[in-house]
């Protein structure tokens, strides 16, 4: 059993994140009381292969969105390394950082609040090119027209305002805007969670089509494992600021090793139906601990139905237990048998 914390470390990686921490200091309540610190992201490692989709999943408050924003340098980074196409992002400032932003763009979660209501749709898509001085004015106009066509919007819609579009159409504008600077990596921050199910499928299919046509790489953030199962190649599961399991999609859904991953997958109707476990959904008790004062040992231990004494005392490391499959759990040993399987067999 090796202790390699990074998945696909020898592959052709576009994004490499190592030891990433994002801590937010809280203001003091009074002169006698310290303010505390929110451990939003607490030392994670992951790599994103070129042309692939890497998913980060977890409950609300797990730190997945903060991890994605940190990869774009949109939140202050406490510690760690972020390398995009071989360039260290954490030390870039000013013009150098602005130049790197052409390579990495984002599609936001809410298509209703992420578009400027005072700007016409064409100007919204063109704005990144104007800010980063990409191409001539005529070239920018032609690219806007081409992007509208590629995302399924009509050319004459460039003159409309956001309120004149449906939610799905607004998210198509957001996708077109993310593509404007011809980036290599697009961060998708729950891009379909605010949409109807039928529209979700359309946007997901659009993202896959664009990835195939342009060779895009996605960092995909979601709390919906059904969506992640459909679009992602590799997946990391986050809990309270840490990655607890990381694997390729097939291995994660067929043989989840961490109890938290097992509980999440049991809540996906399609997964339960496939395995004939409709009546065996795992319902976790209680809420995640506070990121201001994380518990000692395994952060999941207070909610884990299999936790032992050492789980509450000793912090497990994220280790590779079989090729490409990493897990942070004391109860997964050399045999790679997860605790829920051991319990069922006992």
Describe the structure.
- There is one protein chain.
- Helices cover 32% and strands 21% of the residues.
- It contains twelve helices and twelve strands.
- The model is unreliable at 1-10 and 272-278 (pLDDT under 50).
- The radius of gyration is 21 Å and the shape is globular.
- Helix 3 (121-131) runs parallel beside helix 5.
- The protein is an alpha/beta fold.
- The protein has a domain at 13-85 and 186-194 and 212-345: Rossmann fold.
- The strands form two sheets. It has an eight-stranded mixed sheet with strand order 6-7-8-3-9-10-12-11, sandwiched between helices. It has a four-stranded antiparallel sheet with strand order 2-1-4-5.
Q: What is the β-strand count?
A: 12
Helix content: 25-40%
- Quick check: average pLDDT? 89
Largest sheet geometry: 8 strands, mixed
Question: Which labels suit this protein?
Answer:
alpha/beta, four-stranded antiparallel sheet, disordered N terminus
Structure at a glance:
This protein is α/β, with parallel strands linked by helices and 346 residues long. The protein has helices at 64-71, 94-100, 121-131, 137-150, 167-179, 197-214, 225-231, 249-254, 259-266, 269-275, 309-313, 339-345, and strands spanning 13-25, 37-49, 53-57, 79-84, 87-88, 104-107, 185-189, 217-222, 234-239, 242-248, 319-322, 325-327.
């Amino acid at each position: 059993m090796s202790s390699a914390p990074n998945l696909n470390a020898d592959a052709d990686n576009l994004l490499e994140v190592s030891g990433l921490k994002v801590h937010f200091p809280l203001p003091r309540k009074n002169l006698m009381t310290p303010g505390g610190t929110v451990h939003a992201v607490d030392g994670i490692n992951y790599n994103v292969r070129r042309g692939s989709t890497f998913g980060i999943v977890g409950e609300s408050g797990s730190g997945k969105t903060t991890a994605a924003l940190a990869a774009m340098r949109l939140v202050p980074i406490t510690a760690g390394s972020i390398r995009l196409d071989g360039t260290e992002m954490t030390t870039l400032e000013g013009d150098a950082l602005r130049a790197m932003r052409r390579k990495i763009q984002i599609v936001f979660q809410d298509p209703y609040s992420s578009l400027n209501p005072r700007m016409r749709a064409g100007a919204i898509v063109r704005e990144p090119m104007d800010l980063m001085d990409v191409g001539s004015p005529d070239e920018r106009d032609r690219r806007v027209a081409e992007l509208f066509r590629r995302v399924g919007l009509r050319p004459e819609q460039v003159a409309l305002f956001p309120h004149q579009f449906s939610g799905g159409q607004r998210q198509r504008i957001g996708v077109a805007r993310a593509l404007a600077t011809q980036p290599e990596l697009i961060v998708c921050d729950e891009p379909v969670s605010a949409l109807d199910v039928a529209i979700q499928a359309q946007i997901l299919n659009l993202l896959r089509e664009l990835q195939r046509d342009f060779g895009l790489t996605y960092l995909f953030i979601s709390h919906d494992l059904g969506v992640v199962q459909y679009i992602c190649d590799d997946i990391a599961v986050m809990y309270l600021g840490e990655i607890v399991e990381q694997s390729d999609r097939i291995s994660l859904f067929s043989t989840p090793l961490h109890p938290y991953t097992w509980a999440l997958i049991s809540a996906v109707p399609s997964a339960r139906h496939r395995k004939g476990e409709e009546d065996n959904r795992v319902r976790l008790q209680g809420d995640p601990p506070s990121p201001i004062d994380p518990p000692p040992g395994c952060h999941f231990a207070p909610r884990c139905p299999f936790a032992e004494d050492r789980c509450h005392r000793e912090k497990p490391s994220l280790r590779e237990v079989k090729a490409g499959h990493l897990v942070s759990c004391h109860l997964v040993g050399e045999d790679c048998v997860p605790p829920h399987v051991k319990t069922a067999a006992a």
